[in-house]
Design a protein that fits this description.
The protein is of the alpha+beta class. Helices cover 16% and strands 44% of the residues. The chain has one domain: Electron Transport, Fmn-binding Protein, Chain A (Pnp Oxidase, Chain A). The chain has 4 helices and 14 strands. The strands form 4 sheets. It has a 7-stranded antiparallel sheet. It has a 3-stranded antiparallel sheet with strand order 3-13-14, with no helix packed on it. The protein starts with 6 loop residues before the first strand and ends with a strand.
Length: 174
């Protein structure tokens, strides 16, 4: 195992530089989701920060950079939708990660849902949520949300799109 150098600050805590921090996080594999919110125009972005928070009450979370083009719409939204992407939806992930385009026109396959939130077609799973709380954390906002509706892809063998080591990949089952 290679151990990267770090330096002590204040004699007791440790800090790492941004390059090492990014390299360490690249070792973590995560499912890829697209989060959408209503707006004029609607907003959506690709994320790997989605996770369950609590079963009782049901809560999920995702993070969004304060500089993201979707930040304003998400900061004003009462309802959002989280779309877990299918392993063959890398193009969708790339579309919603691209700046300066009309992501919904480029994607095409969506319909308005509760409170006008865009619902993407053909995803592995979709969770419509009410925003519960927003927490500022560094240069991001953590959004905590309560699931109010959900749908799953009918094929139990379908697999999620995964992001690892700077690229999209698929799970391999034996």
């Amino acid at each position: 195992m290679t151990v990267a150098p770090h330096h002590a600050t204040n004699g007791s805590s440790f800090a790492i530089d941004s390059d090492l921090f990014k390299a360490l996080l690249r070792r973590h594999a995560a499912a890829v989701v697209v989060v959408t919110a209503a707006g004029d125009p609607p907003a959506g972005f690709t994320a790997t920060s989605f996770t369950s928070v609590s079963l009782d009450p049901p809560l999920v979370s995702f993070c969004l950079a304060d500089t993201a083009s979707a930040a304003r719409a998400v900061s004003q939204a009462a309802t959002v939708a989280v779309h877990v992407l299918h392993s063959d939806q890398e193009a969708t992930a790339r579309t919603f990660a691209t700046s300066g385009i009309d992501r919904f026109a480029a994607h095409g396959a969506w319909t308005p849902g509760p409170d006008g939130v865009p619902l993407l077609d053909g995803v592995l799973a979709r969770i419509v949520c009410r925003v519960f709380r927003r927490v500022r954390a560094g240069d991001h906002t953590i959004v905590l949300a309560t699931p109010i509706a959900g749908e799953m892809h009918g094929d139990d063998t379908a697999q999620p799109l995964v992001y690892h080591d700077g690229g999209y990949t698929r799970l391999h089952r034996d």
